[in-house]
Every structure is written in structure tokens, then in C-alpha cells.
Design a protein that fits this description.
The chain is mainly alpha-helical. The chain has one domain. The protein is about 85% helix and about 0% strand. It has nine helices and no strands. It has helices at about 5-20, 30-35, 40-70, 75-95, 100-110, 120-130, 130-145, 150-170, 170-210. The chain is globular and about 55 Å long.
Length: about 210
């Protein structure tokens, strides 16, 4: 297998993982709930700020996550296994329809408490750059093996997914009307199954490396 094919495999894996974990379409109900009553210009501003904050958090996790693990004396295999279990938990919530309900409740609570900057909370944290997305960034960074090309690809994937999130947020009202409740629920469950498979692969990789060491 050539370096180019390995790089392409990593790029595709990173893109699928981040898309599934962030689930831009699944965030539409939460975004609509948080920005309810705001004029279109304010909604766009909230969407842009939320995406920039989440991108900075995930990029920082990708770049410094491995260093942080070393400082805490946590091996990457252990983090892969723990991260895989966490991602599997998120996947199960998506499949059984629990995740969207909890996100909506978080958004409604933020409105009730009149949080000053809804772009930072709850949109950027924890709905976008939550534990699952941060874990995925660290795990993917670890799989890059310190290769600058792969790290660059990972950062590019994060930027691309955040751009997609911004576009989806900008079109949130129209997307919700177009998809409807049933289609949104079906899409979330399909993405959950894919994420579960990726989570199991993370656990398998972690166990394999731990046993080999």
C-alpha cells in the first residue's frame, strides 16, 4: 500500500468520523431552538461565531491532545479504547433517539437562563465541540503518527466540516421544513450506526496496540 493510498484512507476516515460525530443536520433543531426570535443577520452571526469557536477547540485538541496525554502519563491505546467506548455511547444515543432530545433540552435551558453568548454555549460547547468530537480529534491525531501531511489533512477536515456546519445553520429553517421530522430521525439513526462501527474499530485498534506492546 503506497503512502498516497494511506493518506487518502486517513483523509476519508477523518472526514467520515468528524461528519458523523458532529452531525450537522442533527444540530439543526438545536440551532433553531437557540436562535428562536433572532433576526436573520443575528442568526448568521451566531452560526459563524459558534463554528469558529468549535473549530479552534477541535484544532487545538488535534494539535495538543497527544502532548496532553503524555503529560498525564496516559497511553494512546488506553485513550483509544476509552474514546471508542465514549463514541459508542454517543452512537447508541443517536440510534435510539436520545441525543437530539438532550441537545434540545440544553438549548432550551440556555434560553431560559438568558446566556449572554449562545454561540459559545450551548452551540460551540457542548453541542459541537463536545466530548465526542474532542475525543475523535485526539484519536485521529494519534492515528496520524505525527505525520505533518496527515495532521494538515485533519485540520483541513475540521475546517471543512465547520464550514458545512455554518452553511447548514444558515439554511436551518429551510432544511428543517424540507426534511421533516421523520427524515431527520432516520438520518440520525443511520449516522449513529456508522459511528458505532467506527467506535468499535477504535477499540479494536487500541486493544491490538496494547496487546502488541
Amino acid at each position: 500500500m503506497t503512502m498516497a493510498s494511506l493518506s487518502l484512507e486517513f483523509l476519508v476516515s477523518a472526514l467520515v468520523t468528524m461528519l458523523v460525530v458532529l452531525d450537522p443536520i442533527g444540530l439543526v433543531p438545536s440551532f433553531i431552538a437557540v436562535t428562536h426570535g433572532l433576526p436573520p443577520k443575528a442568526r448568521r452571526s451566531v452560526a459563524l461565531r459558534a463554528c469558529l469557536i468549535a473549530a479552534a477547540i477541535l484544532a487545538g485538541s488535534a494539535l495538543a491532545g497527544d502532548w496532553l496525554l503524555r503529560m498525564l502519563s496516559i497511553g494512546l491505546p488506553a485513550f483509544r479504547i476509552a474514546g471508542g467506548l465514549l463514541l459508542f455511547s454517543i452512537a447508541s444515543e443517536m440510534v435510539f433517539g436520545v441525543r437530539v432530545v438532550r441537545q434540545t433540552e440544553t438549548a432550551e435551558q440556555a434560553i431560559e437562563e438568558r446566556v449572554r453568548n449562545i454561540a459559545a454555549f450551548p452551540l460551540a460547547i457542548p453541542l459541537m465541540a463536545g466530548p465526542g468530537a474532542i475525543t475523535a480529534s485526539v484519536l485521529l491525531s494519534g492515528r496520524s503518527g505525527g505525520d505533518p501531511v496527515r495532521l494538515g489533512e485533519l485540520l483541513g477536515v475540521i475546517a471543512a466540516v465547520m464550514l458545512l456546519c455554518f452553511v447548514v445553520f444558515d439554511l436551518a429553517s429551510r432544511i428543517a421544513q424540507f426534511l421533516g421530522t421523520t427524515a431527520t430521525a432516520v438520518a440520525s439513526r443511520i449516522l449513529g450506526v456508522l459511528l458505532a462501527a467506527l467506535a468499535v474499530q477504535f477499540v479494536i485498534d487500541g486493544v491490538r496496540v496494547a496487546m502488541a506492546g
